[in-house]
Amino acid sequence: MDPVVIVGAGPVGAASAILLAQRGVPCLLLDRYSTPYPLPRAVHVDDEVMRILQQLGIAERFAAVSRPGLGLRLLDGRHRTMAEFRRDPAPGPHGWPQANMFDQPDLERLLRERVAELPLVEFRGGVTVTAVTGVTSDVATGTATCTVTCTGPAGQETLAASAVLGCDGANSTVRGLIGATLEDLGFQERWLVVDGVTDRDLDAWGGVHQVCDPRRAATFMQLGPRRYRWEFRLHDGESTLDVPALLAPWLAGAAVTVLREAEYTFRATVASTWRRGMVFLLGDAAHQTPPFIGQGLGAGLRDAHNLAWKLASGRPTLLDSYERERKPHAKAQIRLAVVAGWAMTGGQDRAASVRRVVLGAVWRLPGLKGLALRSTSPPLRGVGRGRRAGTLAPQPVVRWQGRDVPLDDVLGDGWAVLCRPGVLIRHGSARVVRVTPELDPSGALRRWMGRRRTVLLRPDRVVAGNGWTPVAQ
């Protein structure tokens, strides 16, 4: 079988390669650079995405270099707290803290280490892809008609592929090669991002601080020991800012070494198509979001998680569901980020000061705290029947073979059926897990199942249906 060629070895590309290789699919991972990008970018993943890192085999190592986020504070222009939304740093329904702060180079290092552990993944750095042709292929037989033309240390090569994954970022070459365009979802702002290390701990609250001031909207957060990030919105016509003056109110006299100072344009876009034949777009190549709800990297890892098991299944019809499921989901989260950005930064027009007054009252409305802290992502559409179809099953700790383990470790990599004791089912190739009091001592899984006798879970732990074919007793 020809390998799946993955263009781009950032977190989404590396995760795709790991997920495929763990399912027996050979992968060729290509990147323009031989080493991971060394500077910070993404800083947050939620508990659902932590489950993906768990399936990649790096969650425990990642937990050692990340820290739970404590929530969100909304500040006025004088850094006075207008509202505070706290998160519990303890593991939540998915087995991990709901917010996890980190430094992206740490994550990329762990992913590259995991890639190196898998013999079915070959990594080639210093490679530039110039063409993708013949975008149909029979995954079931491995007969490739995809080709990837690239240049690298060995000169120009044409590679055969069973599929091509474009994980090559916002300026994706693969996206252009398959003729996809970007749909603008109506948001564009320029921000200055500053990452730094201080000479002493700033004794800051461990959540995200959002300055809701139209004169200078800003964000501040702690990423690790003495590691901090500041983001400042740039107004039209501004090209430079007095960075030391902007940082001074946060430092309280501490000295800071700036690791990175870069201007970014935050956009809200979605690719017109995510697939041509056996060429797929993932991550920033398929969608770009403002950072206000911290779902940029998470959306890309969700793409990889959704597509990998379908590619590995050998069932071409499953591939039709990738864009159908992921695109509406990504759009919903992007639109939420745009709304959050408007609410937290207030825009740049003359009405912004009026909206600040309104916002101060709105944040205090009963019930808004739950909405602001909700980390559960929208359900996938068209997955199956039943109220829970398309949602992600929880991951409590269960008792299995004498040990306390997370549920996903029991379910394995394939389809699974959760069923009540005494229910006999035709399970096919799915793993059957009987939810007994012994397995589920906390009762969390039984409470989630409610009166359902069986629940069918896909390999990505999305609920595919609330029932299964019972055998007559």
From TrEMBL:
One of its GO terms (biological process) is 3-(3-hydroxy)phenylpropionate catabolic process. It is an enzyme of class 1 (oxidoreductase). It comes from the Bacteria. Keywords: Oxidoreductase. Pfam families: FAD_binding_3. GO terms for molecular function: 3-(3-hydroxyphenyl)propionate hydroxylase activity; FAD binding. InterPro entries: FAD-bd (IPR002938), FAD/NAD-bd_sf (IPR036188), PheA/TfdB_FAD_monoxygenase (IPR050631). Residues 3-335 form the FAD-binding domain. This is Bifunctional 3-(3-hydroxy-phenyl)propionate/3-hydroxycinnamic acid hydroxylase. The lineage of its organism: Bacteria, Bacillati, Actinomycetota, Actinomycetes, Micromonosporales.
